[in-house]
Amino acid sequence: MKILIVSDTHRKEDNFEKVLNIEKNIDMLIHLGDVEGSEDYIRSIVACPCYMVAGNNDYFSMLNRELKIKIGDYNVLLTHGHHYYVSLGYETIASEAIAQGMDIVMFGHTHKPLIDIQEEITLINPGSLTYPRQEGKRPSYIVMELDDDGHIWYEIKYL
Ligand SMILES: [Mn+2]
User: Fold this and answer.
1) How far is the CA of 151 from the centre of ligand 1 (A)?
2) Minimal CA–CA distance to 67: which of 85, 55, 53?
3) Structural domain boundaries of the chain?
4) Ligand 1 center from residue 144 Cα (angstroms)
5) Is residue 132 within 8 Å of residue 109, measured between CB atoms?
6) Global pTM?
7) How do residues 71-124 score in pLDDT, each as one tens digit?
8) Which of 9, 11, 103, 112 could form a disulfide linkage to 36, CB 3.0–4.6 angstroms apart?
9) 3-state SS of 100-145?
10) How far apart are CA 128 and CA 115, in angstroms?
11) What class does CATH assign to 2-158?
């Protein structure tokens, strides 16, 4: 199972469209917020199940603030992350996700990609496809692969 994880597109879809041309055959799309009104368009250009949450710039959006989903046997929390103050560090979001029984928490907001696999929780942030802020400032996303035995691989990819 191949899962495409993106965030913080901020109503600019050109890079997202490029990613869809590179990453064929995705089985699930996860968007972690700051879509800024493009949710219907994004849903319309992918054929797979699509999970999106509202970001701090999605004021008028009908998107959920958070989603808890199952990917294989894993409990996954999807959130933009600003309610957990992720700009200040990842301790709060990690401990809250653990307290909620999650195995993986996926968030955006920082515009900096992150794969942090800890014993109790895995923290995943694809960065931003539109306004990257990490060193080098390349638009980023994450591809997650889950095999039939429940093994997971994550890869940060850059445009
Ligand atoms: Mn943002």
Assistant:
1) 30
2) 53
3) 2-158
4) 21
5) no
6) 0.97
7) 999 999 999 999 999 999 999 999 999 999 999 999 999 999 999 999 999 999
8) 11
9) CCCCEEECCCCCCCEEEECCCCEEEECCCCCCCCCCCCCCEEEEEE
10) 14
11) alpha beta
* Confidence tier at 27 by pLDDT (50, 70, 90): very high
Distance 77 CA to ligand 1 centre (A): 18
Ligand 1 centroid to Cα of residue 45, in Å, is 21
Residue 8 CA, ligand 1 centroid: distance in Å: 5
Length of the chain: 159
Phi, psi of 13 (to 5 degrees): -100, 0
User: CB within 5 A of ion ligand 1: which residues?
Assistant: 8, 34
- What is the pLDDT, as a whole number, of residue 43? 95
